[in-house]
Specification:
Order of helices and strands: EHEHEEHEHEHEHHHH
Shape: elongated
CATH class of the largest domain: Alpha Beta
CATH topology of the largest domain: Oxidized Rhodanese, domain 1
CATH architecture of the largest domain: 3-Layer(aba) Sandwich
Oligomer: single chain
Structural class: alpha/beta
Helix content: 40-55%
Number of strands: 7
Distance between the termini: 31 Å
CATH superfamily of the largest domain: Rhodanese-like domain
Radius of gyration: 18 Å
Strand order of the largest sheet: 1-6-5-2-4
Length: 191
């Protein structure tokens, strides 16, 4: 559930905020997703790498911080973590990079185009379910593998966290060279 004290704003409002001098854009997607397309000037610190640096970010990064991910879920997680640590000037890009790109807002694109993590989860989960249903004609117990994946997806929706996405984010395909934590913290004013 999103933090009620953190406001979600649309693309035009975020574009206006970015024009102000004291606004930071923190993209919490994987480095691979960030390299594919990101908002110009955004800093990339994946949500799964925030925890060890929360205190530094909160106490040293001034101004408004716009949190961005692919569709909003990871940005909500980051907002929850940062607000619990004391960062109060946070806003979420409503709809994430999906909304940003659908609005035709400018993006910086990398040479390598990767699938968004959410799309990868859909491919893997769907493939496992399809394979388990097909295999269940010969091995009836394999249907439980599909049921387990379905249960995991329900849990992911309810908890707003996805173990499959977390595992996929650690694959070399999703680890790009763009995420240098020290450089990101320096750009955020935390070092």
């Amino acid at each position: 559930m999103p933090n009620q004290s953190v406001q979600s704003i649309g693309v035009p409002e975020v574009q206006s905020l970015i024009q102000e001098a004291n606004t930071l854009v923190l993209d919490v997607r994987t480095p691979g997703e960030f390299e594919t397309a990101h908002i110009d000037g955004a800093v990339n610190i994946p949500v799964d790498q925030l925890d060890p640096h929360l205190r530094e970010i909160v106490h040293n990064a001034g101004g408004t911080m716009v949190l961005v991910c692919q569709s909003g879920g990871r940005a909500e997680q980051a907002a929850d973590k940062l607000s619990k640590e004391g960062k109060d000037d946070l806003v979420l890009l409503e709809g994430g990079m999906n909304a940003w790109q659908q609005a035709g807002a400018p993006v910086r694109r990398g040479e390598v185009q990767r699938w968004a993590l959410e799309r990868q989860v859909r491919l893997v989960a769907g493939s496992i379910v399809l394979a388990s249903v097909g295999a269940s004609a010969f091995f009836p117990r394999t249907k439980w593998l599909g049921a387990g994946v379905g249960g995991g997806l329900v849990f992911a929706a309810v908890s707003n966290s996805c173990m499959m996405a977390s595992l996929l984010s650690k694959l070399p395909y999703n680890r790009g060279a763009a995420c240098d934590i020290d450089q990101a913290l320096t750009r955020l004013g935390a070092r």
